[in-house]
Specification:
A hairpin with a 2-residue loop joins β9 and β10. This protein is α+β, with helices and mostly antiparallel strands. It is elongated. The longest helix is centred in the last third of the chain and has 16 residues. The strands form three sheets. Strands 2-3-1-6 form a four-stranded mixed β-sheet, with no helix packed on it. It has a three-stranded antiparallel β-sheet with strand order 4-7-5, with no helix packed on it. It has a three-stranded antiparallel β-sheet with strand order 8-10-9, with no helix packed on it. The chain has five helices and ten strands; from the N terminus they run ββββββββββααααα.
Length: 285
């Protein structure tokens, strides 16, 4: 099977009229010969030698594809979404507009099938397999083939050959030699030596992350276990073990029973409010 039957071809992206190879746009293919061997020069009549040719492009940089082609007469209205093909002609040349070709151009990602190829035959009974006849125009028959198309492959960015060769070189440029600086003499002053030792000690005390959160007040303080708790040093390991075994763990109820206190002695005595004397309640008559 051919590449076109597998859909591995680029679609047609533009169709145009052109006078000759000199006026044919770049990246366009000019159809100069029909499939049955005749010249594909569209002329107004046989008496006129100059004419125009049909050309098409498959350049995918625009991101658009031709999904359909139609031939209409000059009295018909152009279908919705279609547009007449462009004309790249000489100054005094013109296209005979008794019949016109119009195309439907759509974004590449919006369709799965598009026009893959265009062919021209002389007006005869010749048939092209797998092609659709669009009709006769200016003494010729126009054919097109539709089908699935392949997505454009990304193009590699051109690189400089000199840079590639330079990158493959095993020789590395040597760095210029720097003159060695003389070592400064050590200060004989005791104050400077003391300052140097303090600065060195300060750098050693700093944590690995350079923060001050790792420094505590116990840093630098010597720590050792008291001799009375060292059972191996004074031979009191057995005594400590016996004391530990004699410790009785009290429950919550035992603690409440042992330390229960009612606070009865701290209760304040109940006081009564003094009543007013009966004589004081009398009022003068």
């Amino acid at each position: 099977m051919s590449l076109m039957e597998h859909g591995l071809v680029r679609p047609v992206t533009a169709v145009a009229w052109t006078s000759n190879t000199g006026t044919c746009p770049k990246d366009f293919t000019l159809i100069s010969i029909t499939e049955d061997g005749a010249a594909a020069n569209f002329t107004r009549s046989f008496a006129i030698k100059s004419g125009y040719y049909l050309c098409y492009s498959k350049e995918l940089t625009s991101g658009m594809v031709v999904s359909d082609i139609q031939l209409i007469s000059d009295k018909e209205a152009i279908p919705h979404g279609y547009s007449y093909i462009a004309e790249h002609l000489e100054a005094k040349a013109s296209v005979w507009k008794k019949k016109r070709a119009c195309v439907l151009v759509v974004p590449m990602g919006s369709v799965d099938t598009a026009v893959l190829d265009i062919k021209v035959t002389a007006r005869s009974k010749m048939m092209l397999q797998h092609y659709t006849c669009l009709g006769d125009i200016h003494g010729y028959v126009l054919w097109c083939r539709k089908g699935p198309f392949s997505s454009p492959m990304p193009k590699a960015k051109p690189r400089s050959v000199s840079l590639d060769i330079r990158g493959l070189s095993l020789e590395q440029p040597s760095a210029p030699l720097q003159p060695s600086l003389p070592t400064p003499p050590m200060a004989s002053n005791k104050v400077s030596q003391r300052r140097h030792s303090l600065k060195k000690q300060e750098n050693l005390d700093k944590p690995a992350d350079g923060s001050l959160h790792g420094i505590t007040a116990l840093d630098g303080v010597p720590f050792s276990l008291s001799p009375k708790f060292d059972g191996q040093a004074n031979g009191t390991a057995l005594q400590l073990n016996s004391q530990l075994h004699n410790i009785r763990i009290k429950s919550l109820q035992d603690i409440e029973n042992e330390y229960n206190y009612t606070f009865a002695t701290e209760t304040a005595a109940k006081t009564t409010r003094p009543s007013m004397a009966a004589g004081g309640a009398q009022t003068a008559q």
